[in-house]
Each structure stands twice: as structure tokens, then as C-alpha cells.
């Protein structure tokens, strides 16, 4: 829920620490463009892997905006479609439906975007590809700095802030060929799994625009469901790649800590906020993860490159993602044996996913909670959550700026003052115990499964749900407690949609994998996608 701001433990006005961050980023460009195959990507690579008949593989999509990203990339490089045609199709779709949901904000001028598309076509005609995402129209989550484009973080303090440098991840995505169309909406500083802010307003749900799209990557998830961009970047502290994916009937992936580096101010203590990919298909997410991931010395805890990710191309990704799942074992936690307040229909809909797992040849077993949930929340989660909000000091301690902060931000910052160094050590020791308990589960099970949320999308005019299933919620994020244990353990987590409520609202399941088994978790999710085809079969009616 709280994402990029706390991931880097650095929040300040554009004139202070943000400038030093941008200065540091200037020295990273060489590292960014050298990673993997993102910068140098040939048309031969794009077209490798054609069917025996000589025809490129097809998803069966009937329009540009319905094409999965892997197919769009191949079609652009094979000159079946031009970048101008792709840009026109997506901008037309934005014009048609974005006003219904408010997913993309800070939309850039059409003429300027079309000019960039034309330049991309000229480069391709000269045999120069920018990368596998050459010419992709992409809106970037509004917690990321984008050069020359307002990056408000959903906060009035930054409503006119125009960075002079891209964030590290945006640099990597640009090195893969994207054209930035705008930003995706997010709650202020990413606080709260409900996308609304005083700068741009609220983002509606693609299946009912009067409801929430989740957050903080709500704009990203909604933009995918509404076919406003091919793939999307997001970030996740408290379920921000998971809850909105479940609510918008798309896929979201929280990678292992260190898989997607985010160089910033404080580099060692905050291990919770993580950037990651979202998509309408797992192969698309895997390709974007490849672009986002990769070791850099600027993020000392970043993981070494995964050779399997690095080998992925639009032509081979579907084959590489396939892996037999028969006989794998899944531990199902549900509502933590009644500890978590949960709307009854949530578990009913999640049964669709469990049944699909069983039909895939997996063994699903309901288990008892491996730790006392209340103790984990009070003694481990809240101290870490509050501690990371110390990055807000420059704003929270300035009387005039403090007036512009949302209550949730102030709540988190003030909460951080209540813990001593000894208490933070004890919280870390509890987190260590929790990590060990999760590893014990992985000695018996291959994956752990839990719902992506404890309730279905609520009225987007609410600030947050005050109660769930008759139980009062004592904080603005207590209703999303179900995601917190998996943030704390650092494992890769994929969110897969599993079905709809009687009211037509979407729900998902989180699949938690063993540490650093990002590739294996994505392979599991792809086999689920092939077995259910749930995203393609259930587009929003309003698109």
C-alpha cells in the first residue's frame, strides 16, 4: 500500500534531497542501458521463433489494444503494425474510456506523442530497435519520477513538481523502448489500498466505476483492465501490486526483495517497498520483470541477474514459462482460522481458484495459522511500517507542508516516534522468527495461498472501510492485514484473479513462493492462466 516514498526512505521537497537523488541518478545511466537485452534489441530477436509455416505466433487478438505485450512487440518489429497505429489505438481508447475511471493522469499532448511514435517508426525502418518495448505507449505510476512530466505522488505539495531526471526503473523501461503517455493514479505517497488523492481525485473500478480499484497501484491495474496500455509498472509495500490486481481482474507480481532495485537515499534498512510488473498475461509480466530487474551496485542489496529471466524474448517467453505443476502442494490459509475479518463471499469466490489448482493436478491443504496474527501485527508489522515513515520528516515537521498531508501519512509518521531502538530490534527479531516459520512451511509445501483482500471493492467516495464483516477496523489499513505477513517474509508473490462476486466484482488469490523463486512462481501462475483464461474471458463491460 505505501510504496515508492517509503521504499527509498526519502521524502523531501524537490529543492532538497530530491535534487541529490537526481544527481546520483545521472551516474547510473551507463548501468541502466547495459543491463540485459533492454537497450540493444534487434528485429531478428523479435521475430525469432516463428511457427514452422513461417507465420508469427498469434494470440487471436482482434485489435491492437487486445494484443498481449509479447505479440505487440513482435508485430511492431515485423512491421505488421506501425508505432503510430499502436499509439493512435491506445490514445483513442484513453479518450473513449479513461474519463469513466480516472486511471491515467497527467496525460501528455497527443501531437507530441504522435511525433515520438513517428520517430520510433523511422528508427525501426532504419533497423534500429529501442528494445522489446519499442514504441509501447506506457503510463508510469505517479510515485516514480518522470523527466519533464509532473510527478505529484498524489500530494498537493508536489502537484507542480516536474523532475529533470527519470527514476532508475523508468530509465530501464525507456531503455527498452517505451513512450511515456502520462502517469497512473495513486493515493498520496501510496498510503492506503484505495487510489484517491486531492490532486487528481479517485480511480474507479473497471467492473463498477463507483467502486475502488484498490491501491496504491490502482491506476496501473485499472489501466490494464481498461486496455489503456499493454503492461504496467507498480510498487508494493502493503499489497499494492496484489490487492488492485485482484480487484481489477489482472495479474500483479511482488518480486523477491532485491529483484528490482530502486536506488535512493537510505539503502539498507527499508526492505519492504518493492517495484514490480502488472499485466493481462503472465508472459507479459515476465518480460517486464526482466526489464525492471538486474543487479546494480547503486542498490547494494540488489540480486544478481537471473539467467532464465535474461533469456526471455517475446518469441520464446510462452514456451519458457511452461512448467508441469502436477503433484505440487499448496498450503491454503484463507481467513487465518477466523482471525481475519472477511466478507463471506470472498472465500466462496476464492474456492474457484482452489478448484482450478486441484484440476491442474495440485494438492491443496488447509493449514492452521503458523503464528499469532495479532502479535505479528502489533509487534512486527506496525513498528516496521511506522519506522519507514520517518522519511516524511521534512514534510511532517514543516507546519505549512504538514497541513497538506493526508491524515494517514501523519498517522504513520507520528507512530514512528513511539518506538525505541530496543523495540525496533525486537520487531526485527520477530520478523526473523516469522521468516523461519515460513521456511518450515516450504519444507512441506511448494506454495502458500491466501486471498488478495478481505473484502470486495468498496465505494470509491470512502476514505477507507471502517468495518469488515461487522468488525471495526482500528486503522486505515487494518482491512488489508491479509497481505502483511508476505511483505514481511520477503518471498515472491503473484496475485492471480479467481472470479467475481454476485455483484460482479473481482477477487484474487496471492501465491507465495520460496525465497528468490520468482521464475518458478511466474511459471505456476502461467499454468493457472492457461488453465482458466480468466482475464481474457472477462473484460470489463465498459471498455
Automatic annotation (TrEMBL):
<feature type="domain" description="Amidase">
    <location>
        <begin position="85"/>
        <end position="522"/>
    </location>
</feature>
<dbReference type="Pfam" id="PF01425">
    <property type="entry name" value="Amidase"/>
</dbReference>
<protein>
    <submittedName>
        <fullName>Amidase</fullName>
    </submittedName>
</protein>
<dbReference type="InterPro" id="IPR000120">
    <property type="entry name" value="Amidase"/>
</dbReference>
<dbReference type="InterPro" id="IPR006311">
    <property type="entry name" value="TAT_signal"/>
</dbReference>
<dbReference type="InterPro" id="IPR036928">
    <property type="entry name" value="AS_sf"/>
</dbReference>
<dbReference type="InterPro" id="IPR023631">
    <property type="entry name" value="Amidase_dom"/>
</dbReference>
Amino acid at each position: 500500500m505505501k510504496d515508492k516514498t517509503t521504499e527509498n526512505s526519502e521524502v523531501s521537497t524537490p529543492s532538497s534531497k530530491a535534487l541529490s537523488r537526481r544527481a546520483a541518478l545521472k551516474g547510473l545511466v551507463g548501468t541502466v542501458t547495459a543491463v540485459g537485452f533492454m537497450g540493444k534489441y534487434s528485429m531478428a530477436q523479435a521475430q525469432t521463433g516463428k511457427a514452422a509455416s513461417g507465420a508469427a505466433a498469434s494470440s487471436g487478438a482482434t485489435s491492437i489494444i487486445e494484443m498481449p505485450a509479447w505479440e505487440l512487440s513482435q508485430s511492431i518489429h515485423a512491421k505488421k503494425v506501425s508505432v503510430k497505429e499502436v499509439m493512435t489505438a491506445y490514445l483513442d481508447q484513453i479518450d473513449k474510456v479513461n474519463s469513466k475511471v480516472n486511471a491515467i493522469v497527467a496525460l501528455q499532448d497527443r501531437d507530441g506523442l504522435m511525433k515520438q511514435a513517428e520517430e520510433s517508426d523511422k528508427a525501426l525502418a532504419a533497423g534500429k530497435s529501442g528494445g522489446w518495448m519499442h514504441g509501447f505507449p506506457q503510463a508510469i505510476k505517479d510515485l516514480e519520477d518522470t523527466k519533464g512530466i509532473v510527478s505529484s505522488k498524489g500530494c498537493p505539495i508536489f502537484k507542480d513538481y516536474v523532475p529533470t531526471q527519470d527514476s532508475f526503473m523508468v530509465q530501464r523501461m525507456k531503455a527498452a523502448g517505451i513512450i511515456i503517455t502520462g502517469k497512473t493514479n495513486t493515493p498520496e505517497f501510496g498510503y492506503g489500498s484505495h487510489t484517491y488523492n486531492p490532486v487528481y481525485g479517485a480511480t474507479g473500478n473497471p467492473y463498477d466505476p463507483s467502486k475502488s480499484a484498490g491501491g496504491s497501484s490502482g491506476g496501473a491495474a485499472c489501466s490494464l483492465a481498461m486496455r489503456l496500455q499493454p503492461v504496467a509498472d507498480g510498487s508494493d509495500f502493503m499489497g499494492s501490486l496484489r490487492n488492485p490486481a485482484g480487484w481489477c481482474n489482472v495479474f500483479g507480481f511482488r518480486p523477491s526483495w532485491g529483484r528490482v532495485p530502486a536506488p535512493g537515499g537510505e539503502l539498507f534498512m527499508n526492505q519492504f517497498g518493492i517495484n514490480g510488473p502488472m499485466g493481462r498475461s503472465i508472459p507479459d509480466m515476465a518480460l517486464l520483470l526482466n526489464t525492471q530487474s538486474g543487479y546494480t551496485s547503486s542498490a547494494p542489496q540488489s540480486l544478481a541477474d537471473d539467467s532464465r529471466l535474461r533469456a526471455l524474448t517475446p518469441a520464446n517467453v510462452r514456451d519458457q514459462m511452461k512448467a508441469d505443476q502436477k503433484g505440487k502442494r499448496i498450503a491454503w490459509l484463507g481467513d487465518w482460522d477466523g482471525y481475519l475479518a472477511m466478507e463471506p463471499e470472498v472465500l466462496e469466490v476464492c474456492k474457484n481458484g482452489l478448484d482450478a489448482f486441484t484440476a491442474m493436478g495440485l494438492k491443496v491443504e488447509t493449514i492452521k495459522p503458523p503464528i499469532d496474527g495479532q502479535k505479528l501485527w502489533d509487534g512486527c508489522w506496525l513498528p516496521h511500517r511506522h519506522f519507514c515513515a520517518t522519511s516524511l520528516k521534512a514534510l511532517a515537521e514543516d507546519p505549512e507542508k504538514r497541513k497538506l498531508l493526508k491524515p494517514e501519512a501523519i498517522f504513520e509518521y507520528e507512530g514512528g516516534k513511539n518506538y525505541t531502538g530496543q523495540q525496533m530490534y525486537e520487531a526485527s527479531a520477530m520478523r526473523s522468527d516469522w521468516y523461519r516459520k515460513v521456511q518450515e512451511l516450504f519444507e512441506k509445501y511448494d506454495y502458500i495461498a491466501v486471498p488478495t483482500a478481505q473484502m470486495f471493492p468498496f465505494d470509491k467516495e470512502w476514505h477507507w472501510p471502517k468495518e469488515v464483516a461487522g468488525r471495526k477496523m482500528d486503522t486505515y489499513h487494518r482491512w488489508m492485514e491479509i497481505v502483511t505477513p508476505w511483505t514481511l517474509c520477503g518471498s515472491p508473490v503473484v496475485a492471480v484473479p479467481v472470479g467475481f462476486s454476485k455483484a460482479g466484482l473481482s477477487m484474487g488469490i496471492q501465491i507465495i513462493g520460496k525465497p528468490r523463486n520468482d521464475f518458478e512462481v511466474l511459471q505456476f501462475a502461467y499454468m493457472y492462466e492457461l488453465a482458466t483464461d480468466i482475464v481474457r474471458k472477462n473484460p470489463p463491460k465498459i471498455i
